[in-house]
C-alpha cells in the first residue's frame, strides 16, 4: 500500500537532512560522541559553528552542539552558558575600529551599519545558527528555560538572556503564531499536553478534560508556532454562560447541565496557561484574548459580555503581611480583628465567621488592587497587571470564589472578574500604560474604606459603572 504523499515528502526531507548532517560530520572529521564532549569541546563547537559558511556543515555542527549540550552534565551545561556570556560577546577588535570610524566623523550609512553589526554579541549569531538544526527551536527554548533558572544565582548570565529574549521576540511574534481551536477531536498528544500544562485549575483526569472541551458551552483555543507544531505556546479555556459567574466550582462541575451555545450571552475566560517556561517574558496572552474575542464573536453574535474569572495569586501573602503590620495604612483595628478569624481552622464552613470576614476581606482586596503598589509604583498582582494592561476593567471581587485548597492558600478564596468592554479596551489600555490608571467599576471602588482611599498616592481612573 502506497504511503500518503505528505508522509513520503516528510521521509524524503528527513533523509536529506540526515545525509547533509553526515556529510558535514565527514567534512569536519568529527569522530566524537555527543554524550562524551567536554566543556571545552562544547565551546569549540560553538566557535566552529560561527566560523563555518557551508550550510551542510552548519546544520551538522548545530545539531551536534545541541545534542551534546542536552546530554552533558548540569555543570558542563552551566559552563557553556557562562562561556556564552564571557567568550561570545561582541568582537572587540571590530567594535573598536567601528567606534573610531564614527568618532572620526564618518556618519555614513555604511559606517553606522558596520558599528551596529560589530556591537552585536557573537552569541546572537550563534543562537541563530543553532536554530537551523532540526528541532533547533525547541532545543533553544529548553536551553533558555534552564538559563532562567540559573539566572537566580548567576546574574552574569543576564546579557545572554537578553539576547535570547531579543531573538525570541522576533521568532515568536504574532505574525508567526497560528490560533487553533482545541476540542475533544484534537489529537491525543496535544490533549495530554493540555492536561499537563494547565496551570490555573488542575485537570484531574480525562473526564475532567472532556468536561472542559466537549460540551456545547465550552471552548478552548491555543497559539501554535510552525516550528513547535504539537506544542501549544499558550491556551485559554472559555465557558459560555448566561451571566457573569462569581465562582469557579460550578463551571468545573462534572454534573452540571450544559446550555446551548446560542443561549449564552457571556464568554468567560477562566483559565489562561503559558506552556513554555523558556518563553517567559515573551507576551502572547494579550494577542490571544483579543483574537479569541474576535473569533468567538464571529461564531456567536449573541455574545455581548466578555469577562474573566481570575485567581489572585499574591493576595493572601500581601494580606497576611498587612495583618501583622501594626502601622498598616490599609487596615484599621476593626478590620484587623475581623481578619484574625482567617486563622481559625475551617472558618469557611462557619456562616457567622464568614459574615464577619467578608466585608473586611473585600475592603482589603479593593485596597490591594486600587492603592497597594510595588516599590516601583506598579500593581502588586501579576494577573491584574496582565488584564488591566490589556484594557480590561476590574469589574467585581468575588468572596470565596475559589474554595479549592490552592485557592484558599493563595487568596483566601478570592476571585476577580475582569471585564473586556469592547468600546473601552483602548482607553483603558492607554490609561494604564501611560499613568497606571486602574479602570474599576463603581461597585469595586465603593469597597474601599475612607482610610484606604486616603492612603492612595496613585492617580486612579474615573469610576465606571
Unreliable stretches, pLDDT < 50, 5 or more residues? 457-465
Order of helices and strands: HHHHHHHHHEHHEEHEHEEHHHHEHEHHH
The coarse overall form would be globular
CATH architecture of the largest domain: Up-down Bundle
Structure summary, number of beta strands: 8
Q: How much helicity do the residues have?
A: 40-55%
**How does the helix and strand content classify structurally?**
alpha+beta
N- to C-terminal distance: 66 Å
The H-level CATH homologous superfamily of the largest domain, spelled out, is: Malonyl-CoA decarboxylase, oligemerization domain
Number of helices: 21
Notes on the protein architecture:
By secondary structure, the protein is α+β, with helices and mostly antiparallel strands. The chain has helices at 5-28, 39-51, 55-71, 74-87, 92-103, 109-119, 122-130, 136-151, 158-171, 188-197, 206-213, 249-252, 285-299, 315-323, 333-339, 351-370, 382-389, 405-411, 425-435, 442-445, 450-455, and strands at 178-181, 218-224, 234-241, 266-274, 305-308, 310-311, 393-398, 415-419. The strands form two sheets. Strands 1-2-3-4-5 form a five-stranded mixed sheet, sandwiched between helices. The model is unreliable at 457-465 (pLDDT under 50).
